[in-house]
Amino acid sequence: MDSLTADHRVHRLVAPLVDPATYRAWTFFVAALPLGTVGFSWALVALGLGVASSFTLLGIPIVAVSVVGARWIARLARPLARWGLGAKLAEPAPLVHEPGLLGWMKAALTDSVGWRGLLYLVLMFPVGLVLSVLALTIAATAVLTPVLLVAPWVIRWIAVPMRWLAERLLAPLTLSERAARLRAGRQQVVDTAAGERRRIERDLHDGAQARLVALAMDLGMAKEKLATGRDPEHVEALVTTAHDEVKLALQELRELARGIHPAVLTDLGLDAALSAVAARCTVPVTMNVSVPVRPAPGIEQIAYFCVSELLVNVSRHSSASAASVDVLRTDGLLTIAVRDDGIGGARVWSGTGLSGLAERVEAVDGRFLVDSPMGGPTLVTVELPCGS
Amino acid sequence: MRIVIAEDSVVLREGLTRLLADAGHEIVAAMPDATGLVETVGDLAPEIAVVDVRMPPTHTDEGLRAAVQIRRQYPEIAVLVFSQYVEERYASELLAGSTKKIGYLLKDRVADVRDFLDAVDRVADGGTVLDPEVVTQIFSRSKRREALDALTPREREVLEAMAEGYSNAAIASRLVVSEGAVEKHVSNIFVKLGLAPSEGGHRRVRAVLTYLGV
Q1: Domain coverage including residue B25
Q2: A279–B140 CB contact, under 8 Å
Q3: CB-based contact, B61 to chain A, within 8 Å
Q4: How many other CB atoms are there within 10 angstroms of residue B15's CB atom?
């Protein structure tokens, strides 16, 4: 019993020595210095130049460039921290900005990913200096048994705050930013829903309701004429018009109901519902849906409306000759990609259809990305969280 | 003809009963939901069952499920599925196996009484009736777009009418041309699409729909 426990203790003591994570952390310590050097130099030169010239008009663009540059260097730091420290880090979305140089500068100067990346890179210079000196010293003295036993523990302990730092400064969004975005998203969804109800009311009022009034009128006149027994040809004409009116009203009501919620989506899911959407698109659509397990109804509905709105845009604005839709469900994520070979130039501006979709997607903590250079092609990617 | 109706809306159920009885048919049962529909149809052995898709208790597609089951268990009984919406996917479920004695129509079509009664007769006689809107969906989803683009507008109209289940004589009277002209269009279409010539009726519908990818 005793010897077993002792054995167990020895195992625990040397465990970090044989754990590959220790060696990965050691490599990170060594690599932290060059990374910190590059980052610090960038900050010193670019940011320094920007601040120094801040009394001229050039200062602000230079600061913006330094933030965006830090974003790029941070892209290298992220895989390193993931591999070396086991940090859990998602890639941030590309910088979204309004058109023009001013829009770009505004986005760059308020880009939390870039600023935090810059801070991380600057910190990595002194921290990296200490870490790499430590790592190299350990390597040089590793022939000594006490060093061999203690050093792995030291490396593991130091790796913990390093991971914490990386996860705070290199993450796409801080927790409070995410909460703020969700809050804003929720408000927009409430507004969008109110707007939708107004639109439905207007469509009913201008469409089916008006047709039914006309129909009642025609039938009323026919009834009068029947009662008096005069003008039988006119009665027939009135009834024929009424008949046509009611058929149009039925068609309008059917389309309106489908716009509110397509029954086939509830019954058969995305594959069947989207296939009917593709059939109504004026541009030929290649549809590829791989959703073996159905997501929650709310997510399914957002996915459906994204694809159907995006295909309406393709029909109306893209001048495309072909489009494709790919819907794929992987662990916890529903990914939708809508492509067309049209003229491009689609932007997520407030008040447009695309921004409405982006709001709906962001309200459930999803992502909405538009890549549509002038001249095309256009790729819209939507990611929706859907549990696993 | 002896007919069973399954439709949850009272107004529509009574309307349909009135309309079909007025045309000289006998309504042997008019049911408000799909529960026990398959058994009732089995017991009463009508010539045709007219079935709504959405019905209680779940208000999804129980009518369609019942229709598929009736077709499997009692292939001699014709089924006309009658729905607020038409979906290509439902059409392919209904047509899986056989295109005989089956119809799939929008409820709106009842407004054209003569066409509707004609559709009931055609389905009961062993034919196929597909709503023009389903056929439009099938055409735009078809992977044979290039071959279809090679058809003249008139040939395309004839092909759509074939997919809807019309005979040459019916197509001729709809397009106001002679039956001979329709026959010529039909053989042109079959040559252009590389289809083996087939006799009329449900077999031809099957060939056309298979070609279009249903």
Answers
A1: 2-131
A2: yes
A3: yes
A4: 13
